[in-house]
């Protein structure tokens, strides 16, 4: 839309070549339907989008060591068309990519503004995580959480469970119905107890994953679905599952309360990540792009949309 509505030159970078191909197809469809799209949002109808800006998609891996000036220059058919400044925008900065994007912005003088929308914080590597190997966190060349000088000074750590929660959308959970989340978590908790009674203890890398409970499945069916994902001893019978469920049925309302508390805490945990990134930018005031300089930097948080 930045290109079609406002005529700005846009370079879209995406690691997956399949997503790049899909973006090109989607763009062609939007151009053909441009008049109806303009009318649907109340804008003046035009037969074609503005043509004074380029729109280029490229398959490219972006890391903290990426030279965006070089990537931008290579994407232009004519070197004379290369602008000396650009907006750095990340719409799906998964995991540590959000941190890497801030570091790229800090080092590139051509990037005059930054818009970064984070997601998938459970993939974000931490500097002070207690058990990085057990949780599958891999730092690699990524910028680690935390980034700000203050949270680094107190060696702050969230942990994988908190980062998983920070990635959840309260709106999606509430709109889809809290009953589904309660049933799913309750069955998962009872399954853990059932396995423990038979001497089975899941490792940190054992994942049951999402099992669909919206179809009204009972706990026996849930255990059967879990067998396809994790190793469950064959001696655990359906009667064992029913007996374990009966022992904890009275705690289901407690599980519901816990889920509601978790849902309300999710935005707070995400704000810790986002505020850390904002503080990192404020830490750079007077020393951006690798050289000391007098400048004023504005860093703020805005809610663009409800994450559904």
Summarize the structure.
The protein is mainly alpha-helical and 308 residues long. 46% of the residues lie in helices and 10% in strands. The strands form three sheets. A two-stranded parallel sheet has the order 1-2. A two-stranded parallel ribbon has the order 3-4. It has a two-stranded antiparallel sheet with strand order 5-6.
Can you offer a commentary on this structure?
The structure is a single chain. With 308 residues, the protein is mainly alpha-helical. Helices cover 46% and strands 10% of the residues. It has 13 helices and six strands. The strands form three sheets. A two-stranded parallel sheet has the order 1-2. It has a two-stranded parallel sheet with strand order 3-4. It has a two-stranded antiparallel sheet with strand order 5-6. β3 (86-94), α5 (97-107) and β4 (111-119) form a beta-alpha-beta unit. The longest helix is centred in the C-terminal third of the chain and has 32 residues, at 252-283. It is globular, with a radius of gyration of 24 Å. The two termini are 21 Å apart. Residues 132-137 and 287-296 have low confidence and may be disordered.
Biggest sheet layout? 2 strands, parallel
Query: Which percent bin holds the helix content?
Result: 40-55%
What is the CA-CA span between the terminal residues? 21 Å
SS elements, strand count: 6
Strand order, sheet with most strands: 1-2
| Overall radius of gyration | 24 Å
> What is the beta-strand fraction?
5-15%
Mean pLDDT equals 79
Unreliable residue stretches? 132-137, 287-296
Oligomer: single chain
